[in-house]
Design goal:
Length: 235
């Protein structure tokens, strides 16, 4: 049976607050910077829509919020971990003067503090698997999106090809937690990472959840042989 992972807001925010100072360094080291390509793929896809105002949920230290701002979007980043947001705010100060500096809010995706139909797009990169009550969050996202607007979600997955999957899972379950433990203050955060990914519904299982929350025109595409998936759905 799968191990129970406590995803209550206090537990998750405490974990991310603890790893915040080393988060960016470890993120890029553990993914060999490939995560940057995945975020760029999301931005290429958001450009297919007519979008100005973006809500970047679970924005963490702001890598996606900042990339979106650099591409001309008016971004609101939201997260439950204050220390992640502080880093996002600091990094955002270095943006070129032409960009609109993202605004950051400390709040949960379970209760989004914005009115109905207020965003042209919602994005989430590597955040949704941590949400405690996914259905409530998806319903909240649906509420704040304008009709026809897209939700773009990047999340880790298990590759489907056998050899690649075996190699990747060996790295993900054995090597990544060791490196994470060496560099971060948290003993458990980097063993939580593979466990939370392997418990998250993938591919059609997750698109089914999106459709149950009311989304339509749902599709996905794999990144780097299925290490990550970009899901796109419309309100
Ligand atoms: C792995 S980080 C991803 C950060 C960033 N989006 C990125 O791509 O690097 C996951 C983030 O989700 C946030 N998070 C978890 N549950 C949340 C919730 N219910 N509402 C908002 N943010 C949440 C955590 O605090 C953390 O900063």
């Amino acid at each position: 049976m799968a191990e129970y992972l406590n995803k209550q807001s206090e537990v998750i925010s405490e974990m991310f607050n603890e790893i915040a100072p080393q988060y960016d360094f470890l993120n890029h080291l553990l993914s060999l910077d490939i995560d940057k390509l995945w975020r760029r793929k999301l931005v290429r896809n958001i450009k297919k829509y007519s979008v100005k105002k973006v809500l970047d949920l679970a924005c963490g230290t702001g890598d996606l919020s900042i990339l979106l701002a650099k591409n001309g979007y008016d971004v609101t980043g939201m997260d439950i971990a204050e220390k992640m947001l502080t880093i996002a705010e600091e990094k955002s100060q270095n943006l070129n003067k032409k960009a609109i500096i993202p605004k950051y809010t400390n709040a949960s995706a379970e209760a989004i503090p914005y009115s109905d139909n207020s965003f042209d797009a919602v994005t989430i990169s590597f955040g949704i698997r941590n949400f405690n009550n996914r259905h409530t969050c998806l319903t909240e996202i649906f509420r704040v999106l304008k009709p026809g607007s897209p939700l773009l979600i990047l999340e880790f997955a298990e590759p489907r090809r056998r050899v690649w999957k075996a190699l990747y899972l060996f790295y993900f379950k054995n090597i990544l937690p060791l490196i994470g433990k060496m560099f971060s203050k948290s003993k458990s955060a980097y063993s939580y990472l593979p466990k939370s990914v392997l418990q998250f519904p993938q591919y059609e299982q997750f698109t089914h959840e999106l459709s149950e929350a009311g989304f339509s025109n749902i599709r996905y595409s794999t990144c780097s042989g299925g290490i990550a998936i970009l899901y796109i759905a419309e309100r």
